[in-house]
Design a protein that fits this description.
With about 160 residues, the chain is an alpha+beta fold. The chain is built from six helices and four strands. About 30% of the residues are buried.
Length: about 160
């Protein structure tokens, strides 16, 4: 059984989607990030950067995996679904683009526009324009391929969809 420590955020949702897609038995342990539960010492033992999501694989010596991309790779390899090893170069590129560019930039857009509007015109304008460009880039990619990494649904799509 997989135990998912998560919150209702785009990063948190990715792993729930993957667990549903691969039909693994799992339970969710909610982490209230609004009450700083992610900074408690017991949580830091499984997530050194105090971030969600993180999993514990109770069927694999209680293996702990943090960072959404690493968790998706772990679950993809374990289940042999949505992570074709012959296509992993393409899949990893799109997965890393989500983790290093798409998620962080759209996350900043959400911070400035949805959670702190009116506090920084520069920030609002900058991240709105970046988010608009990213959505255009994703649309352009999906005009050429059915899914981000090609013709098959992969962990790259699972990682990007919640954003």
């Amino acid at each position: 059984m997989i135990e998912l420590f998560s919150a209702d955020t785009p990063n948190g949702k990715k792993i729930g989607i993957m667990l549903e897609e691969i039909s693994y038995e799992y339970k969710v342990t909610k982490v209230n990030i609004n009450k700083d539960e992610q900074f408690k010492p017991e949580f830091r033992k499984i997530s050194p950067f105090s971030k969600i999501p993180v999993i514990i694989d109770h069927k694999n010596n209680k293996e702990k995996v943090f960072e959404s991309g690493a968790i998706l790779i772990y679950l993809g390899e374990k289940s042999k679904k949505f992570y074709d090893l012959n296509e992993r170069l393409k899949i990893n590129q799109w997965l890393m683009a989500q983790m290093g560019y798409i998620g962080p930039m759209i996350g900043q857009h959400h911070q400035f526009h949805h959670f702190n509007p009116g506090k920084s015109k520069f920030g609002e304008d900058r991240f709105f324009n970046i988010a608009k460009r990213i959505y255009g880039e994703l649309d352009a990619r999906l005009k050429d391929t059915k899914y981000l990494a090609g013709s098959e649904y992969t962990i790259a799509d699972i990682a990007t969809w919640p954003w």
